[in-house]
Amino acid sequence: DGGITQSPKYLFRKEGQNVTLSCEQNLNHDAMYWYRQDPGQGLRLIYYSQIVNDFQKGDIAEGYSVSREKKESFPLTVTSAQKNPTAFYLCASSKGSRVPRGAEAFFGQGTRLTVV
Amino acid sequence: GDSVTQMEGPVTLSEEAFLTINCTYTATGYPSLFWYVQYPGEGLQLLLKATKADDKGSNKGFEATYRKETTSFHLEKGSVQVSDSAVYFCALSTLNLYNNAGNMLTFGGGTRLMVKP
User: Fold this and answer.
1) How many CA atoms lie within 13 A of A9 on its CB side?
2) What DSSP assignment string belongs to A28-86?
3) Measuring CA to CA, which of A58, A85, B28, B30 is 20 to 30 A from B104?
4) Distance (Å, whole) CA A47 – CA A81
5) Which CA distances in Å does A60 have to A10, A56, A73, A92, B37?
């Protein structure tokens, strides 16, 4: 079945550590996105990528980094510079910019990151 | 920039009650509009969408009509069930080829719905 897989589902990080969240899709989508969700709040865009080897900062990119070496994969690294990383992280993909109006985004199941 | 405003929750209803969740938007272009649903501990799933004015999206008994004159996309359901308890997000996307943002979504803050038996 086609879809987006995020791993791990739960992740614990010590103060000062970098951690990497995995996101893989087999939908042949060009575009991929990372969102952060805090309790009781909406989704805020961290980074997005419309094509391999290219990505752009979203609204809250500070303290995060990404790479897009393969079409299927868009890992997110939460660095020690991110002062408040505890949150629920969602990865999404869509067909990208050269599609008709209304192309939907597909989401993974999320990774819950907790700083201990 | 683009923005989406939803009514704040939680919304608490009894089973079989009528549901309305309000959503209004501001967009620089001509957006497509979406409702996504998030069940506890999970990612978001597309519930319904509409791509032009006066279109009605519908799915699983939920409906929403694209009202360009009032910039609204309110979600409705005639008779809610306990299984509808979730967080509902209104979102829009505007094709933007100039900064390579494509069909990127802008989300509202989400509305938690709790349905009691």
Assistant:
1) 4
2) --SEEEEEEE-TT--EEEEEEEEETTEEEE-TT-TTEEE--SBTTB--EEE-TT-S---
3) A85
4) 16
5) 22, 11, 21, 16, 23
Q: How far apart are CA B33 and CA B73, in angstroms?
A: 7
SS3 B58: strand
Question: Two tokens at B4?
Answer: 């989406």
Tell me the pLDDT tens digit for each residue of A21-36.
999 999 999 889 999 9
- Spell out where chain B has E strands: 3-6, 11-14, 19-21, 23-26, 32-38, 44-50, 56-59, 62-65, 75-77, 86-93, 105-107, 111-116
Residues of chain B neighbouring A48 (CB-CB closer than 8 A): 101, 104
The answer to whether B95 contacts A97, with C-beta atoms less than 8 Å apart, is yes
> Tens digit of pLDDT for each residue in A67-82?
999 999 999 999 988 8
If we measure between CA atoms, which residue out of B104, B107, B94 comes closest to residue A47? B104
Taking the CA of residue B94 and the nearest CA in chain A, the distance in Å comes to: 8
CA distance B99 to B38: 29
Nearest CB to B103 within list A6, A54, A99: A99
